[in-house]
Amino acid sequence: MTAMIKSLCVYCGSSPGRIHAYTEAAHVLAESLVKRNIRLVYGGAGIGIMGKVADRVLELGGEAVGIIPKALAHKEVAHANLTALHVTQSMHERKMLMAELSDAFVALPGGIGTLEELFEIWTWAQLGFHGKPCGLLNVAGYYDALVSFLDHVLAEQFVKKHHHAMLIVETDPNALLDRYAAYQPPVVKQWLDKDQT
């Protein structure tokens, strides 16, 4: 059964990054989401790449749902004009709600928090907690070194081939969303219940 994508969770930086290509990719992804009637779910900030993707979705009449912990609402400057903004008590609650509200997950360029969120949701897929597609939007080669490292992890037999293949990597947002729409999760034995994590 293929994935029905109604909401996409976007992990990305709360800073704009060094080059304008990151902002351009955020805008193109936003345009693709609105065109396909897919709701944006993201970290709730109004700054950086996070703010850019949400702003563009809203400009085009799409839906943008932000989820931000109370402690970061001021530091990351919570977006004031979202379709909905959920303020959580903790980072863990934030990530759980983002996962619950989303049918798929993608990382745009970002820092340590972006990587942590991506690896956690990918790990949950590996453990069989969900069968939703996860991926990287590799803008301007930003994730080239990470993709190469993950190939090395596979070659060194610390990850299985079908788990490695769960992470979809594309340079174009439309190609990524096309692959998400056709995604069929591998049959994965559930190692733990979510309550055991």
Automatic annotation (TrEMBL):
It is an enzyme of class 3 (hydrolase). It comes from the Bacteria. Keywords: Cytokinin biosynthesis, Hydrolase. It catalyses: AMP + H2O = D-ribose 5-phosphate + adenine. Its EC number is 3.2.2.n1. Pfam families: Lysine_decarbox. InterPro entries: LOG (IPR005269), LOG_fam (IPR031100). Signal peptide: none annotated. Belongs to the LOG family. This is Cytokinin riboside 5'-monophosphate phosphoribohydrolase. It comes from Methylomonas rapida.
